[in-house]
Design a protein that fits this description.
The protein is α+β, with helices and mostly antiparallel strands. The protein is built from 13 helices and 19 strands. The chain folds into 3 domains: about 240 residues, Uridine Diphospho-n-acetylenolpyruvylglucosamine Reductase, domain 3 (2-Layer Sandwich), CATH 3.30.465; about 80 residues, 2-Layer Sandwich (Alpha-Beta Plaits), CATH 3.30.70.3450; about 100 residues, K Homology domain, type 1 (Ribosomal Protein S8, Chain: A, domain 1). It has an 8-stranded antiparallel sheet with strand order 15-12-14-13-17-18-16-19. It has a 5-stranded antiparallel sheet with strand order 5-6-10-8-9. Strand 8 and strand 9 form a beta hairpin. The radius of gyration is 22 Å and the shape is globular. The two termini are about 35 Å apart.
Length: about 450
């Protein structure tokens, strides 16, 4: 499968300045200005076509002491912290093959460079789908490395939940497998869980195997507007706890003065969707402060990209919380923003405990807003059953203009940092893979 790519084009010739340890492994070129990541320049770009070539080039990089950054489509390289250094980019653009599709078993194995959109077309012909709809699409490897998910996360989860097998190459060139279609396992580690959301700091993902789901025959979105956060939160949670079995529940609050829209996605066979749509309309209309529910096409905010306004500098945060805290979280965002005269756009998978906050302002105002928001979230009361750890409520800066990145703590408090550092020490003791991209300089 050949996937379209927005990545920079490189001269296929291998200049003499490229070390033999790299040139003998796979196609390698000298990096250009377009290959810089967040202002960090790269020296070389390697484009392997197989796990074996990827292992060879990482072995060569390790022998030279080079720092390495994996790159897929490049659509999410702006997320998080730029690498502290980047000697070698390993571009997965030619790792673009579908290895196997066991339609009867609802399983697919692909190389990391396969574009999500291309895979969707292939699976659609079999009446199946990989139930992941992250903002901006991208490659399979990038999808897993960032653990990105869209509205369907409410029912199906994030990439780590659908991943049943993975092949990775460690910084020293060692190939490791975990889960489905295993040749060699790493004892004691679930590689899929570790590498999902690792931002390339543990190694290079080269192959992945996923559990699939049938394509729904019909779908309907029921939307309703609310005047205040409490009413919107009550409605979203009522839909989540109902027998409607929604596939997604999204919330959109463009500004403090705007109405709050709650949208509920229902999927299944046509009779079931028609019946549940009517019941959803009735349920939402019964909520306090609700406008008139309506069923129709997907609203314009559905699956909004992380950068909600590319025409102006925007800082985007991912706020995670226990769903029962939704109303309090919405108020906490507005309170923190009001203190800095900001009016952010809030939206996301509210009933799954994930919201994205997009704010525009100068670096000082944004930094103070982030600090105030994290402080406000830390004081939220736990859920009634007391089982949700306070550490699970967080605000991570996903992307920001350079002047904000230099001022704000992108990750914020990370209680599990000692454990994360121990895992990093195990997989990449030399700190050569995407150095500095993770929390605490991991």
């Amino acid at each position: 499968m050949t996937a379209p790519s927005a990545r920079p084009e490189h001269d296929p010739r291998t200049p003499a300045s490229i070390p033999a340890e790299l040139a003998g492994a796979c196609a390698v070129t000298v990096a250009g200005d377009a290959d810089a990541v967040g202002g960090t320049p790269a020296r070389f770009v390697a484009v392997p076509t197989s796990t074996q070539e990827a292992a060879a080039v990482l072995t060569g990089a390790a022998s030279l002491g080079l720092t390495v950054l994996p790159r897929g489509a490049g659509s999410k390289l702006g997320w998080g912290i730029p690498p502290a250094s980047c000697d070698l980019i390993v571009d997965t653009g030619r790792l673009d093959q579908v290895i196997s599709h066991a339609a009867g078993d609802l399983v697919v194995s692909v190389q990391a460079g396969v574009q999500l959109a291309d895979l969707a077309k292939l699976l659609e012909a079999a009446g199946q789908r990989l139930a992941l709809d992250p903002p901006g699409g991208g490659t399979i490897g990038g999808l897993v490395a960032t653990n990105a998910a869209g509205p369907l996360r409410f029912r199906y989860g994030a990439p780590r939940d659908l991943l049943i097998g993975i092949t990775v190459v460690r910084a020293d060139g060692t190939v490791a497998h975990s889960g489905g279609k295993v040749v060699k396992n790493v004892a004691g580690y679930d590689l899929g869980k570790l590498f999902a959301g690792s931002f390339g700091t543990l190694g290079l993902i080269t192959e992945a195997t996923f559990r699939l789901h049938p394509l729904p025959a019909a779908a309907s979105v029921v939307t309703t507007e609310f005047a205040d956060a409490d009413s919107a939160a009550t409605a979203a949670l009522a839909a989540a706890r109902s027998p409607l079995a929604p596939a997604a529940i999204e919330l959109d609050w463009p500004s403090a003065a705007a109405q709050i829209t709650v949208a509920v996605l229902l999927e299944g066979d046509e009779p079931s969707v028609a019946e549940r749509t009517a019941r959803a309309e009735s349920l939402l209309s019964d909520q306090r402060g609700a406008g008139r529910p309506s069923a129709g096409p997907f609203p314009s905010f559905w699956g909004r990209p992380t950068d909600a306004s590319p025409t102006r500098p925007v800082t985007s945060l991912r706020v995670t919380f226990w769903p029962g805290q939704l109303a309090a979280v919405l108020r906490a965002v507005r309170t923190a923003a009001n203190g800095q005269n900001l009016d952010p756009h809030i939206g996301g998978s509210a009933a799954a405990g994930i919201l994205y906050v997009h704010a525009a302002g100068d670096a000082r105002a944004i930094t103070e807003f982030v600090i105030a928001l994290r402080s406000g979230l830390a004081t939220l009361p736990p859920p009634a059953n007391g089982t949700w750890p306070a550490a699970s409520t967080s605000a991570v800066v996903v992307s920001a203009p350079p002047e904000v990145r230099t001022e704000v703590d992108m990750w914020g408090p990370v209680p599990a940092l000692p454990l994360m550092r121990a895992v990093k020490d195990q997989f990449d003791p030399g700190y050569k893979m995407a150095p500095g991209r993770g929390p605490g300089g991991i």
